[in-house]
Write a structure and sequence with these properties.
binds ligand 26Q, 14% strand, six-stranded parallel beta sheet, alpha/beta, ten-stranded mixed beta sheet
C-alpha cells in the first residue's frame, strides 16, 4: 500500500537530517543507537500530525472518554509497533535498506519500556492499542518510573537483578508537558475552617510535603485509522523548581527534602507480581499518579463544561486492580473541597465515574493498608474514607439488621486496615473479573457478600491480546500467510475472521506450509538461544514453553519435576521411544521471593546436568531464557509447539500468555483455570491437553485443610524419586541442602501453612499422562499440524479488540470517533 505520508525520499532526507542535527554525524558515521533515534524522530514527526488531528476531533466532538488508571503499562518497544499500526512498516524498511540501515537491527536498539511486571501491565498496553484502533478516546494514566522492571541476569544458575535504566539515551517518542504539571500533597494535618459567609466547613491541609507531578505523553497509534491516543505517565519534580517565588528560600532543609521525595517517588517499579508488600513508598506512588491524573482530568473537563455534577457523562475511570483505588477518595476530595459539592452530590458523581477490575483471588495480593500509615500519609483522603465506610456500614445494617458478621466481613476499615478492594467495590459502578471462571469464583467465593448485596455491579470481561503486536509484529511469516489464505487483511482489526482458516485443516499442502512457518520461527528462536545461552537446540524437537512470572501457583516446579522424571526414564530405559523435546522456561522472580528464586536455580541446575549428559543423545534439552520480556516474548510465542498453562486450578485469574501461544498455533497443556477454560471451549478439548484437579476440587480441599501429599509420596515411586532427588545432591553437585526448602514445601507442613499448597504432587501423575499424550500426538505430524492450525483458527475471541468492545458496551459507554484526513 502506498503511503503518501512516508514518501520515500522525503523520509530518507528526514532521517539524514535528524542524524545531522541530533548527533552531528552522517548516516555512515552514526552508530545503531543513533540511527534508531534518528529514524524514531522521523516517525514521530508523522505521528504528531495525527496526534494533533485526533486532539482537534476530540475538541470538536467532545466524546466521553476513559481514563485507564494503572500502576503498570508494559508497553514493549514502540518503533516497530508504530510502523505497523501506521501501515508503513514495509515501506520504511525498504527506504532504510536503501540507506544501508537495517530496520530490525535498529529496532533492537530500542530499550524495552518495562513499566510493568507481567499480565496486568501488558493487558493495559493491549487495551490502549485496541481502544485506539477501535477509535475511542482514551488516556492511559501511570508513572514514568526511572527504573522499570529489573533486567535479569543468570549467574551460576541464580537470578541477579540489574537496574533497567531505560531512559539513559532519552526517549524519542515521549513529550514532556510541563504546562500540565500538578502539585501533589502528602502528610501534615487537616485544619477545619468555617466559611465566614455560609458557615460551611472547609478543610485545609497544613504542614504537608509536596511534589510537582509533570506529565510525559506517549502517542498510542491506532491501526490504519489516524487516531492517536495518549499514554500519560507522570514524573515527579521538586516544587522549588517550579515556584521559586512562593518558596521560602531560606529553608534549605525543606528544599532538600522535597528533592528527595521527588526523586524517590518515581524511582522504581515494585517488582512484585501478585504480592502485596505494604510499603509506604508504594502508597505514595499510588496517590501521586492518581491525584495528578484526576486533577488534570477535572481541569480538562472544566475547560469546556460548567456543570461538574455531570462529570460522569464525559469521562469514566477504570481502576486496573486496587492499585489506583485511592482515586475514589481523591475524586471525592476534589469534588467536596475544591468544587464545593455536598456529600451526596459528590458521591453520586464518583459512583457513576469509577469502575474496578479485579485480577486476582490470591490472598497475599490483596491490598490492605495499615490505618496509621494511611492516615498519616493521606490525612484528608483518610477522613473521606472514614465517612464512606460509616455510610456503607449504615447501609449494611439497613439491609441485614443485627448481622454484625456482615459488617465484620465487608467493612472498608477493619482490623486496623484500609481494605482497598472493599473501597473499590463500594464506590465503583462496575466490578469485573478477567475470565468467566474467575468472575464466577469472585461472585460465589471471594466476594460473595458483596455480590449478594450488589449483584448488578458484577460482570465478566474475559481478557484479550492485540494481534497487531503478537502476530503481525512477532510472527510476520504467519501473518502474511493468514492474509493470503483468507484473502483479506481484515483479521488485523477483526480477529474473528481467523475462522476462515478452519477449512485448511483438511488441506495437506496448507498444513505443510503452516508447519514450515512454525519451523522457521523455531530456527529463529534456536539462533537466539544459541547466541544468548550458548545452548544448541534442535528445531525439529518439540518446543515446550513456559514463560510467565515465577510464582508458586503457576507451578514451574511441577514442570521441572516432570522434566526430572523424564530424564530418569531416559536414563533407565534408553530403549524407550521418545520424541526429542526442548523445555523452554522464561521467568522473573520478585527480588525478595526466595522460594521463586530457588525454583529458577533448580531449573538451571537440571538444565546443566541434562544438557551435558551425552548418554541421552540430546533427546532432552532444557533452556532458561534470561531476561524474559515483551521483545523476546514475541519470538518465543511464534516458535512454540506446546504452551504450558499449568497453574493450580482457581489461582490464575485469566492468563494472557495462553492466548498469545494459541494465536501462534501452539497447543495448550493446561489445567481448567482462568481463560484456559474458554480457550478449550473455542478450540475443542481434542485440540488441547487438559489435566488435573478442577477449581471446585481445589477449593474444596482448601476448605478442608488441604490434602496429604505423603499419601502420594508413599504410593507413587516416580514421584518419590524426583522429590528425593531434590535432597540427594543429584542437581546440586552433591549438596543435599540446596533444595531442602523446596522439598519441605512439598512434604512438610511446618515449612508453610500447608504442605504442597499448590497441589503439585496431587496433579503430578495427571500432568505426566497429559505430557505423554503430547509426545504421542506430535509423532503424527499431520494430525498435530491440524490441531495447531485449529488453535490459530479458533483464537478470534481472544483479541483485546473484542474485550474492549465489551468494556465499552457494558461499562464505559464511550462514543466512537472517526478521523478522515
Ligand atoms: C500490590 C501491592 C504492592 C506491590 C505490588 C502489588 C502488585 C503488583 C502487580 C500486585 C499484583 C500485580 C500484578 C498482578 C497481575 O499481573 N495479575 C494478572 O493479571 C492478568 C491480567 O488480567 C491475568 O491474566 C493474570 O491471571 C493475573 O495473574
Amino acid at each position: 500500500m502506498y503511503n503518501p505520508r512516508f514518501e520515500k525520499n522525503a523520509f530518507k532526507k528526514e532521517v539524514e537530517n535528524n542524524v545531522k542535527t541530533l548527533f552531528r554525524k552522517t548516516v555512515e558515521e552514526a552508530n545503531q543507537q543513533q540511527l534508531f533515534q534518528a529514524v524514531s524522530y522521523a516517525v514521530k514527526e508523522v505521528i504528531i500530525d495525527d496526534w494533533l488531528a485526533t486532539q482537534k476531533k476530540y475538541d470538536e466532538e467532545d466524546p466521553k472518554m476513559v481514563y485507564y488508571m494503572s500502576m503498570e503499562f508494559l508497553m514493549g518497544r514502540a518503533l516497530g509497533n508504530n510502523l505497523i499500526n501506521m501501515t508503513a512498516y514495509t515501506e520504511v524498511k525498504e527506504a532504510l535498506d536503501e540507506m544501508g540501515i537495517n530496520l530490525n537491527a535498529i529496532e533492537d536498539q530500542e530499550p524495552d519500556p518495562a513499566l510493568g511486571n507481567g499480565g496486568l501491565g501488558r493487558l493495559a498496553a493491549c487495551f490502549l492499542d485496541s481502544l485506539t484502533t477501535l477509535g475511542y478516546a482514551a488516556y492511559g494514566c501511570g508513572i514514568r518510573y526511572r527504573y522499570g522492571m529489573f533486567k535479569q541476569k543468570i549467574e551460576d544458575g541464580c537470578q541477579i537483578e540489574m537496574p533497567d535504566n531505560w531512559l539513559k539515551d532519552g526517549n524519542p517518542f515521549e513529550l514532556r508537558r510541563p504546562e500540565y504539571a500538578k502539585e501533589v500533597r502528602f502528610g501534615g494535618n487537616i485544619r477545619v475552617q468555617y466559611d465566614d459567609v455560609t458557615g460551611e466547613m472547609r478543610f485545609a491541609q497544613e504542614n504537608y510535603e509536596s511534589v510537582m507531578a509533570v506529565p510525559y505523553d506517549y502517542p498510542i497509534v491506532g491501526y490504519n485509522n489516524h487516531v492517536v491516543n495518549t499514554l500519560r505517565i507522570w514524573d515527579a519534580e521538586p516544587i522549588v523548581d517550579f515556584e521559586l517565588n512562593s518558596f521560602d528560600r531560606g529553608d534549605y532543609h525543606k528544599a532538600v527534602e522535597q528533592q528527595n521525595l521527588a526523586k524517590t517517588i518515581v524511582e522504581v517499579l515494585y517488582p512484585n507480581d501478585n504480592h502485596y508488600a505494604g510499603k509506604e513508598l508504594r502508597l505514595k506512588q499510588q496517590y501521586f499518579f492518581v491525584s495528578a491524573s484526576l486533577q488534570e482530568a477535572v481541569d480538562k473537563y472544566k475547560r469546556t463544561h460548567d456543570d461538574i455534577t455531570k462529570l460522569y457523562e464525559k469521562m469514566t475511570i477504570q481502576m486496573n486492580d486496587t492499585h489506583p483505588t485511592v482515586a475514589v477518595a481523591e475524586l471525592m476530595r476534589i469534588l467536596l473541597d475544591e468544587e464545593g459539592l455536598g456529600w451526596n452530590e459528590a458521591w453520586n458523581v464518583t459512583t457513576k465515574t469509577c469502575a474496578y477490575t479485579n485480577h486476582t483471588i490470591m490472598a497475599e495480593a490483596l491490598e490492605k493498608w495499615p490505618i496509621d500509615l494511611f492516615s498519616r500519609l493521606l490525612p484528608r483522603v483518610y477522613q473521606i474514607i472514614q465517612e464512606i465506610d460509616r455510610r456503607f456500614i449504615l447501609q449494611i445494617h439497613a439491609q441485614y439488621p443485627g448481622n454484625e458478621e456482615k459488617v465484620r466481613k465487608m467493612a472498608i476499615l477493619r482490623d486496623g486496615q484500609v481494605k482497598m478492594a472493599h473501597l473499590a467495590i463500594v464506590a465503583g459502578y462496575s466490578v469485573n473479573g478477567v475470565a468467566r471462571l474467575h468472575t464466577e469464583i469472585l461472585k460465589n467465593q471471594e466476594l460473595k457478600d458483596f455480590y449478594q448485596m450488589m449483584p448488578d455491579k458484577f460482570n465478566n470481561k474475559t481478557n484479550g491480546i492485540t494481534q497487531r503486536r503478537f502476530l503481525m509484529h512477532g510472527n510476520h511469516l504467519l501473518a502474511d500467510w493468514v492474509t493470503e489464505k483468507i484473502g483479506t487483511k481484515d483479521w488485523i482489526t477483526d480477529l474473528s475472521l481467523m475462522k476462515g482458516l478452519k477449512p485448511l485443516a483438511e488441506d495437506k499442502a496448507a498444513l505443510e506450509e503452516f508447519m514450515q512457518i512454525k519451523f522457521k520461527n523455531k530456527e529463529r528462536l534456536a539462533a537466539y538461544i544459541k547466541e544468548h545461552n550458548g545452548v544448541e537446540v534442535d528445531p525439529r524437537s518439540i518446543f515446550d514453553v513456559q514463560v510467565k512470572r515465577l510464582h508458586e501457583y503457576k507451578r514451574q516446579l511441577l514442570n521441572i519435576l516432570h522434566v526430572m522424571y523424564l530424564y530418569n526414564q531416559l536414563k533407565e530405559h534408553p530403549e524407550i521411544e521418545f520424541y526429542p523435546r526442548t523445555f523452554i522456561f522464561g521467568a522473573k522472580a520478585s527480588a525478595g521471593y526466595i522460594r521463586a528464586k530457588q525454583i529458577i536455580k533448580l531449573i538451571n541446575s537440571v538444565a546443566e546436568v541434562v544438557n551435558n549428559d551425552q548418554s541421552i543423545n540430546g533427546k532432552l534439552k532444557i533452556v532458561f531464557i534470561e531476561d524474559y520480556r515483551v521483545s523476546n516474548a514475541e519470538w518465543i510465542f511464534a516458535a512454540a509447539d506446546v504452551s504450558e498453562q499449568i497453574s493450580t486450578a482457581s489461582k490464575e485469574a485469566s492468563g494472557t500468555g495462553n492466548m498469545k501461544f494459541m494465536l501462534n498455533g501452539a497447543l495448550t497443556i493446561g489445567t481448567m483455570d482462568g481463560a484456559n477454560v474458554e480457550i478449550v471451549e473455542e478450540v475443542g478439548e481434542e485440540n488441547a491437553f487438559i489435566f488435573g484437579l478442577s477449581s471446585d476440587e481445589v477449593i474444596n480441599y482448601e476448605q478442608h485443610g488441604g490434602y496429604n501429599p505423603m499419601d502420594i509420596y508413599n504410593s507413587d515411586p516416580d514421584v518419590r524419586r524426583v522429590v528425593d532427588q531434590l535432597v540427594d545432591g543429584t542437581y546440586a553437585h552433591g549438596n543435599r541442602e540446596m533444595y531442602r526448602d523446596l522439598y519441605n514445601s512439598l512434604l512438610n507442613t511446618k515449612s508453610s501453612s500447608r504442605a504442597d499448597m499448590y497441589f503439585i504432587l496431587k496433579d503430578f501423575r495427571a500432568y505426566a499422562e497429559a505430557q505423554k499424550k503430547v509426545g504421542e500426538a506430535y509423532k503424527d505430524t499431520e494430525s498435530w499440524a491440524k490441531k495447531a492450525l485449529l488453535n490459530t483458527a479458533c483464537c478470534g475471541k481472544f483479541s483485546s479488540d473484542r474485550t474492549i468492545q465489551e468494556y465499552i458496551d457494558d461499562i464505559w459507554k464511550l462514543d466512537k470517533v472517526e478521523i478522515n484526513l
